[in-house]
Amino acid sequence: MNREDLYRQIQAKRSMLCVGLDVDYAKMPECIRNLAESGELMFQGQEFRGTARSIVEFNKAIVDATAPHCIAYKPNLAFYECYGIDGMRALDATVDYIRSRYPEIFLIADAKRGDIGNTAKMYARAFFETMDFDAVTVAPYMGADSVTPFLAYKDRWTIVLALTSNASAAQFQMAEKDGRPLYRAVMEEMMGISNPDNMMFVVGATKADKLAEIRSFCPDNFLLVPGVGAQGGSAEEVMQYGANDKGGLLINSSRGILYADNTRDFASVAAEKAAATASF
Amino acid sequence: MNREDLYRQIQAKRSMLCVGLDVDYAKMPECIRNLAESGELMFQGQEFRGTARSIVEFNKAIVDATAPHCIAYKPNLAFYECYGIDGMRALDATVDYIRSRYPEIFLIADAKRGDIGNTAKMYARAFFETMDFDAVTVAPYMGADSVTPFLAYKDRWTIVLALTSNASAAQFQMAEKDGRPLYRAVMEEMMGISNPDNMMFVVGATKADKLAEIRSFCPDNFLLVPGVGAQGGSAEEVMQYGANDKGGLLINSSRGILYADNTRDFASVAAEKAAATASF
Question: Does the predicted interface ipTM exceed a cut of 0.85?
Answer without folding.
Answer: yes
